[in-house]
Amino acid sequence: ADILLWREPKIAATLVIGVSLLWFLLEVVEYNFITLVCHASMTSMLLFFIWSTASDFLNWERPIIPVVVLDESSFKELATSFHDRFNQILSKLLDLACGRDPPLFFLTTISLYILSVIGTCINFMNLLFIGFVSMQTLPIMYEMYEDDVDRVASMLMRKMRKLYRKVDSNVLSKIPRGTVKSKKHA
């Protein structure tokens, strides 16, 4: 939260510059990701080799490389967490698809449609970059202009509710609905 709200400006700025540089290399220069990783690894290995060799001749301190060992339980915990979260989302989407919450169903459908339209216009890497930049800038902007944003958001919510009531009374209420039967398990 401190990084997103720029309370630690050096870390936040470093993160934004690093991601911007990565985006520039992958999108503008059209560097391949695998090639970039290989070149970065070769460069770091070469720098450590030069540093280690020069430290013998120039009486410098040799580089200290920490040993990083990740245990198996960390990966199992991550996979279990991902699996549980994915099942929750899938269950919620299936509930929505069955018509148990019509307002949320239409909101989800409209959101997915908007996301699909955006997806046809922007490639995935650019979408990730825009998402990251938004994640870094929107919280601090909201903190600075919280009252104005809340006022506009509440006005927009009132208009959306009014529009939904109109669509519900003119269209949705006229759609015949059958009973939702639960699946029997043997």
UniProtKB/TrEMBL annotation:
Example GO biological process: response to bacterium
Amino-acid biosynthesis in keyword set: no
Main location: endoplasmic reticulum
Residue intervals of the Reticulon domain: 1-186
Localization per Swiss-Prot or TrEMBL: Endoplasmic reticulum membrane
Keywords, ordered alphabetically: Endoplasmic reticulum, Membrane, Transmembrane, Transmembrane helix
Topological category with respect to the lipid bilayer: Multi-pass membrane protein
One GO term describing the cellular component: endoplasmic reticulum membrane
Name of the protein this chain belongs to: Reticulon-like protein
Source organism of this protein record: Brassica napus
Gene responsible for this protein: BnaAnng22410D
